[in-house]
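Issue: copy button drops trailing tokens. Both records pasted manually instead:
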Amino acid sequence: MIYSQGIGTAKDPVRATFWFELAGQDGSVEDKYTLGVMYSKGEPLEKNDVKARQWFERAANEGHVLAQYNLAVMYSEGLGGDRDLQKARHWADKAAGQGDPEATRLLSVLNERGKQSPFEILMVAGGGPCCRAAYCATGSAGCRSWG
């Protein structure tokens, strides 16, 4: 963070990138996810969707739910590489299986012409209805009937 924010020294994106990537190589799954976010947003590192996708994949393979969701989005939109709807579904399914409502919504969209209805996919995420997932799927918080 010292080089990326210029704390006590001049900002140096090259050095910042070197140190962030070094930390990510042997770091925690959270470090890998954070590098993916930094590259995808372009802050404080230079925006690079290819590297973002690589770091999200490393974290996703270690079970990081937000990395799995972000990777699904990147594959579904072709960010950082070729568009691959099969891989997008795979990663959205992994994240939805951990209860991530945004991943559940994405999976519904990706499978809208598949065998499962969006409602069936919604019910699979977390084993039952979830107000936050319902909001993501429908755009409204109509959860009162679920108690």
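Record 2 (pasted manually too):
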Amino acid sequence: MSTASFEMWEICDVKHGAYGMAAASSFLTEDQLQCSICLDVFTEPVSIPCGHNFCKACLTKHWKDKEQCQCPLCNEKFNKGLKLRVNTGFREVVENFKTLPVTAENNSPLTPGQVPCDYCSGNKFRASKTCLVCLASFCETHLEPHKRVAALKRHRLTNPVHDLEDKICTKHNKILEFFCRTEQTRVCTLCTEHSAHDTVPLEEEYVDKRAQMGKEKLEEPEIKQEQAQNYQRIKLKTQRKKKSKGKAKEKVPNQIRDRDGYLFLYELED
């Protein structure tokens, strides 16, 4: 969630109470209320000192067994004993957002680059969710049973996934939701040949890679500065060599001239 969006919610809350929170929810989009770890709308959101928000369960899992707690987005470090408390006001905004009625935009015709609903016949609508159990994507209309039927409610939903068939294990027909760091490949829960390897959930690997990229970006100016300094040193060294060679070339004609002059004087004396 952006800082501006969160500030807008705080203003609405102070001035108008519950009405303000409902109004704030209606102005926000799903992307602004999305946890960057699970890539879904927040559940039990917690705010950490740097100002970023995550699902409590996602952040707890991400920090588990880590020697140092740090923000998955900005890499700011915190004490290992940092207590995660649910931001109750923000949670209410998220819950209000979840109850908002579906708009025509959610069931809009498919446009290039969007994931289609697998259950629409004829003109396809864009998918609003992908089910990792059904291995299919659904528009808001066809997603309705997942919100109503008890058994389907337990299914794991995520944001629409492009090329879902490429993310399914060809051996076990299960979603590739883990990453084997030993062999640098995606695996499913039934890929037992990787059981002794270092495997982590895909979202954890994604967050770690994103954090590493952020660290490299911060170090980039220092690396460029060092490269520039090395270039200048090489340039100066090359210039000195050229200058030294030039002086050496000047000495040769002078030495020849001095030698010839000496021989000429010697001949005159004879």
